[in-house]
């Protein structure tokens, strides 16, 4: 299980892309309160439920449906899948593709984190990331492995400060 989860650890992505910014605050004529301002992304991520118990493999992978899991589910899942990146999404996602992979760029000796528009084979991904990918048009074609765990522990060091 540990080696399975470690395969999903890829590191941080650093890149240059086309800049885009759109203000959304109460002083703007086009203000939309349903689109909140997002800051403190790291602190917000650290306040999400963390795995702490009941680590187990899901036995019936063929019927597992990630879209039916609530975002605030008490059980978390990590999947190993084949992920298709449809051609019609490439222009819209070219600046920041979903699902970076660790690989050697052509002509290089060191692995790098590459954000590509290629299909992903045996990609290890958290269920909430996969839900985001599928909402944006990517398709999970095949599931190999599904791992579940209890998520009752929260990042208490962040919330108590």
Automatic annotation (TrEMBL):
Organism: Dinoponera quadriceps (South American ant)
Name of protein: Uncharacterized protein LOC106751163
InterPro entries listed in its UniProt record: DNA/RNA_pol_sf
One GO BP: DNA biosynthetic process
């Amino acid at each position: 299980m540990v080696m399975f989860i470690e395969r999903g650890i890829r590191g941080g992505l650093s890149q240059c892309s086309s800049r885009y910014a759109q203000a959304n605050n109460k002083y703007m004529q086009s203000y939309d309160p349903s689109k909140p301002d997002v800051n403190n992304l790291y602190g917000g991520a650290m306040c999400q439920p963390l795995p702490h118990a009941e680590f187990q493999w899901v036995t019936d992978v063929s019927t597992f449906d990630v879209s039916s899991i609530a975002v605030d589910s008490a059980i978390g899942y990590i999947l190993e899948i084949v992920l298709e990146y449809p051609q019609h999404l490439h222009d819209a996602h070219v600046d920041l593709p979903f699902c970076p992979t660790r690989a050697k760029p052509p002509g290089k000796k060191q692995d790098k984190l590459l954000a590509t528009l290629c299909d992903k084979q045996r990609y290890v991904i958290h269920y909430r990331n996969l839900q985001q990918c599928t909402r944006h048009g990517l398709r999970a074609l095949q599931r190999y492995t599904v791992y579940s765990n209890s998520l009752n522990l929260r990042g208490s060091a962040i919330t108590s400060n």
